[in-house]
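DUF6049 family protein
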Amino acid sequence: MAEAADFQGTSPSPARRWLRRTGAVLAGTPLLAGLLQLPAGSSAEAAPRAASDDGSVAVSVDSLTPSAPSDGDTVTVSGTITNKGKKAVTDASVGLRVGSLLDTRSSIDTVAKNSGDVDSPVGAEIDDKYTEKFAKLAPGVSQPYTISVPADELDLGQDGVYDLSVTLTGETSDQPWEQTLGVRHTFLPWQPDDLDTKTKTTFMWPLISTVHMTAETGSDEEQTPVFHDDELAAEISPGGRLDRMVALGKDLDVTWVIDPDLLASVEAMTTRYEIPGQSADDTNVVGGHQEVAKRWLTEVQKAVADKEVVALPFGDPDLASLAHHGTSVTGSLRHLKEATDVAARTVESILHVAPSTDYAWPVEGAVDPSIIKVSTSAGADKVIVRGDTFESGRDLTYTPTAPRPIGGGTTAVVTDARLSTVFDGDMTRASASSQAVQRFLAQSLTLALQTDRPRSVVVAPQRTPSAAQAQTMAEAIGTLQDSTWSQPQALTAAAKSKPDPAAGTEVPPASAYPKSLRKQELPRSAFEQIARTQDKLDRFKVILSDQSRVVTPFGRALNRGMAASWRGRPAEAAIYRSGVETYLDTLSGQVRLIEKSETKLSGRSATIPVTVQNNLVQGVEHLVLRLSSTNPTRLQIDGNAYEEQPVAVSGGHSQSVKFTTNANANGRATVIAQLYTQDGRPYGQPVTFDVKVTEITATVMLVIGGGVLLLVLAGFRMYTQRKRAAARQAGEREQEDAADEADADADDDAKNPEASGRRPTQESAPDTREDTPEQPSDPAPDTAPESADPSGTGERVDR
């Protein structure tokens, strides 16, 4: 295959390449003859070396530059060799070999799988002058190497991907002949000229994290948020995972795929936040990461400017778990709709760009009919699906374009599985990172050379790449964007491109969903707990004067409880959901009835107070307090079995509500106090207490009545005495006034009788006779006869 491909090229002549490779074969003939002449025992001793795929010397390729060379470039390969055996290696030589043309995508997979196999085929070694010699390589010792070769010396002919291998040959004391002791295969894309039809490649760049914020907030006016850990601060700090994602992505032509919860969480850190169990002196409590959060958000705003942004539903809910376990729980789809509705507002308010919310992205792009149904239930009409779970199409010899219409106005945007998964794994090792970059480019070029049809390819990497993975991805994307066979494209443009009529459009059945993914899904109990918490929230919010202080943080927390990031962490997910429900129960319990002890009634009617306590920072209203008697024949509440009164209590206060009761008989009656919302649903726990009724007897009534009568009579007597005294005083004053007037007239007549026109009369003459009888017409004396009795109260006595 390699030779046939070479004759199609225009670089080094076919004759020259044939001579070089024939020479390599002839050079190996003496060695082969020597091996054939070895005794049987020696041949058996050589077997253990061949049994080890990786050989006794490990070879790594830490760097290959340029990753996709062109005419006139010099290819430089560097890495290390490490002697893993127990024998020293002598006369060691590191060289490059160009193998066959890898013209299929599966052949690239095969080489990648066996990249360290010393028994795998290798091409002819490049000129001996492009080798590096080592006189001795001791056991356990590593040595670096660097080999630079002009591109025109690599004998590259036909455009495509070549198997480039670095080999180490040498001898050991027990095998003293030249042999291959270590090898490392990598890939060399060769496309010096622009293709007539370039592949349009979309790379999704995810900004997603795990759940960090709780439902709890402070009682202050700002509602200080509470985080359950401080890991987000580390991620956005310089050098952190999310910091690297932004720094690397801003220079790439990618589509940003963002979880709005991440933006909301970082924005909450721009003021101050708290972590349970930490004191007020800790830096995060007083805003120690405030500047870090502000800087990161500013960098994100710059990075996404003039770029396409896709907003996932708030919290990045696990669509597969919801489809398989949540749809049978009432209200679960409601949370997905709320998460979708709030997504655009959150992203636009923080990043000042209008995102697209038309996309659903199930975990690893694995779907079945139920997942498709749930994904589109909240308004999305495009589902990101990975190619290895979706049929490409019958008899297709090429990778079809990404969009596939699957019915109902829904488009499956099928991502390329090979390109999407190549960056999985540990990329902290330079050799792994270099291999991933070369494999990515090799797959992309091979895909582009499959056909001259215009195609759109979408790459969806892992949801939360590490900093090392992000670095590797950025290197590969940067090279691809400058390549001669691909050009960048936004996700929306890719989804709108013309579908390939030969591509498969059948959604995989539920039985085809990967078992490994199904084991990680959220259980039905998770959605039942979320529904139970939502029901409690609905009952609690109706009594609040400011519902937003509770509805918003708890609503977002319920969205986070369904996050895809909980996969593989069932215990942590359960703790988070329980924490949300428990905190809501705590808040609801702040509005309650105060317990009452037994109450005694010693009359036929009395007033019973019941106290409602509100320890929330805001007022509560729309509550009704009902007091019910369990024995209305003995005790009635305002003449009935129960009475209701509306309740409104300010924040941090208590209020006593009074009920009028009527007793009909002696004994103990049980009374129940219960708060209700205005829609008639019970709120909180009832308070039950006993009322002891003592009936009033007839004797007691007579005694009480006699006492009241005496009080009335005493009061009446005092009233009449005062009235009589006042009358006597008025009469005496009138008599005194008349006497004074008569005396004055008599004096005037005596002084001037003629002037008065009257003569003195007998009545006015002094009476000297002691025994003169009294006449009926005589006037009464001026003073009353003296009496030896004491004078009456208020009476005037003349002396």
